[in-house]
Give the backbone structure.
Amino acid sequence: MNPKPTQQDYNNWHNDPNNWHFGMFYYNKEDKRMFVPKKLKWAGFTINFANTKAILITVAFLFFMYTLTQLK
């Protein structure tokens, strides 16, 4: 069983340019968090595209918003 990542682990992952695709999409399979701070931490949060649950929640949310806009 892997020990829980430390704050230092989170900081190292966040600062690693290999975890940021096109400078804005966070993808890290080691990081189990669904939502992570954006590259500019003061700008809010983004999803971890390596986390399946985060992707499913995002797709479900987008589908829900789409259906709301199609109601007449």
Summary: The CA atoms of residues 10 and 31 lie 8 Å apart.
